[in-house]
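Table S5 (text form). Sequence records supplied for joint modeling of the two-component complex.
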Amino acid sequence: MLLSRTAEDLYWLGRHVERAESVARIVNEHTTLLVDLPVDVESDWAALLNITGSEAGFSERYDQRGETEVITFLMADVGNPGSVLRSVNSARENLRVSRQMVPRAGWECLNRLHMTATEATAGCTVRTRRMDVTETIIGSCQQLAGILAGTMSRDHAYRFWELGRLVERADMTTRVLDVRAGTLMSAAAPSSHPPADRSPYEDVRWLGVLRSVAAQNMYQRSASTSVQGGGVVAFLLDDAHFPRSVAHCADEIERTLEQLPARTEPLEAVEVLRTMIAERPGDDLTAEELHLQVELLQDALALVHASLCTAYFGLAEVAPTRGAAATV
Amino acid sequence: MEQIDALSPAELGARQTAAGLGIEAAGVTFTVYNEGLGIDRSWPFDIVPRVIARQEWDRIEAGLLQRLTALNHFIDDVYGDQRIVAAGLVPQEIISQSRDFRPECRGVHPRHDIWAHICGSDLVRDSDGTMYVLEDNLRVPSGVSYVLENRLITKRVFGELFAHQSILPVDAYPERLRRILASLTEVDDPVIAVLTPGIFNSAYFEHSFLARAMGVPLVEGRDLLVGDDDRVMLRTVEGLVQVDVIYRRVDDLYLDPEVFNPDSTLGTPGLMRAWTAGNVAMANAPGTGVADDKVVYSYVPDMIRYYLGEEAILPNVATYRCGKNSDLAFVLDHLDELVIKPANESGGYGIVIGPASTAAELTDCAAQIRADPRNFVAQPVISLSTVPTLVGDHLEPRHVDLRPFTLLGGESYVTCGGLTRVARTAGSLIVNSSQGGGSKDTWIVDTEAGSGRSAGRVPTSIDLTTLEGDRSTPRHADPASTKRTSDSKETR
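The corresponding structure-token record, covering 820 residues in total, follows.
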């Protein structure tokens, strides 16, 4: 028998751990990218705020938009609900009240991650430190996922942790596309520039988009073509096999929902998401078109999230059952 | 004890360190409230076990069951016909003025007529060797999880001692508790839940521990829902599931905002409706606190006589009721020699120890008593017995008390031993963990079985001179148990 409250805690555990990992990764990637770009290319730290959707929150708390402020805000500021430190704190609070559901090693791993994040995120303003810390955090999040994947029973409890990660992951992929790819596309429509004419930095930037969601190697393996805009967008939206593509996340969400007690709304919401990906207008889009596309996808994801809340965590009146608890 | 004595200071220290690490790794904690902040502290544990002979324990066990049985008769009577009042033994106003008397409970008949299913009595041994009952904790007593955790740690640190002793095991508790909870309903294979106020409660560790050990869900008030049909439903991802038995660790007044504190967010609206309708059993039942009042405590020997026709096996500590004029005059005259207790507090809060108080504190105390005499009792200072305790690298005597846990329902059970709480500083009588006290594992040792098992191997390695209660003949002990105590001496 899984309490709705515990299911919600595990779902949020998944979202928070995934968020900590994703934010650490985009910070890491952006810093790497900077090394490749010539000094006069404006290093747009504010792009990181756009990706995390935290422009407004940032402006309330900081006057300057420099590297130090943005990195502090994203890594170590507990006043930012999307920061790495805050996400790790929240994940730990979620697991503290549901730790009986996971193997002990999972709790210990998250505790270590919590200690690392508490001690080290503030030091990320120094670039060399930043690479170490972000990589440690990414590694710890993956370790927790590995412990649970390897040692946790595949019951409803596990499914809600998975759902949280999938929803958060799909959301982050769409945000990276919107901001990072969007910026590139507005610079110049890719079709008007044959590869040979393109600035070498454009390739680097497209690689950066892929690296932001850890997709570089898998993209290269599947595409066997040069890195170019339309291909990257298609890969991140619709690749059936890459685990961080929106389509793959949608497939996994659907598969997971089918193993949970049947509820119509979440399945319908994920169907909307899948239709939207399948029937998208194309991949060589203008920045405006891409932005519109991403907004629709994010609305659909928000609907998936909301329907999960009502169907499984909420106070929704469901026909009373006795003994239903026996089936996991 | 000889084996423990034989350990070098360094070895003792190393084992204490190992125990401390074990506690930290296992995350055994309790919460201390300080300036509004809850701090999760590691459980303070002293590795030297406290040893009590089984022969004496058998008598204590019988005394605890006798007492809980009589207290349950009393609670059932209080919410029923109040025969004990009609008989002139307990004044009506003592009951009606008790802070935890709940008129809402009148006329309710819990299964087996049992209201208090889980009791954590506090026992103290005076300098003359007598074991007294100091308090009956019938509301939501805590500490049993530490009994089990302490034993796990001792087994790890002193594993070799268990080979030669017959130390009675303690780990049956969660299973016995589950069975007794299940006996509170007629439903086969009932759905049982532990109701906790939440993670900020000082005993959350225990709530979670017991739920896990019994294999039942740990729920908060918001996880439950009581419908118009007065059934208690649990919100699960499968939908609503009916709950049959609730082991509630939430105080009466927070249980149900419909009936009690309307601002409580810890409880569930409608829980009392469901309970009075007989659709859910609660352990302990609401209203049991009426027997936890320290004035009511002073009547327990009378209750045992009245309801059971027996004499109390375990004596009460002499108690002056300030609500009684003659007692009040005596108490006010002897404040500096007595312990003054509010009738309805727990955890050591509000207690004034006369000999340890300043004149100003005593004047203040006297004023409080005069303002509300019904709500104060006074007791002579019990010079709690001491047991050897590791201080730095050597053993010193420290004062202790003992909290065994007694279960009563379709069957009964008493823990083999209990939670020994130990004062941290020399001479101190304060053992509450919330006030800096520590704890010890408590061994009930079957000396007869022990000597049988170790025949031809090692002589019984626990020196019986360190057994408690052996130093003098208990003053209030019945002849039979005195005989058993002296028998045990001869087996040495």
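Note: Chain A touches chain B through 24 residues (CB under 8 Å).
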